[in-house]
Design brief:
It comes from Thalassospira lohafexi. The protein has 69 residues and is an all-alpha fold. The chain has one domain. It is built from 3 helices and no strands. Helix 1 packs antiparallel against helix 3. The longest helix has 24 residues. The chain starts with a helix and ends with a helix.
Length: 69
Amino acid sequence: MSMGRILGVVILVIGVALLVTGYNASESAVDQISETLVGRYTDETIWYLIAGIAGVVGGMLLMLFGRKR
């Protein structure tokens, strides 16, 4: 397995972890109140979700198109 694909797997796992963290944060009491009053989640939760999506997409692309030997 090439280094690019290994890096892709690592980034994918980190992206999934960030998505799970963002999802759990969105279910917290503070975010529920923020969404009810303001209509959106807190900035920290949004950044977790954005970084998680970017990590998953980037990791998948590296796994699929990573440099071959």
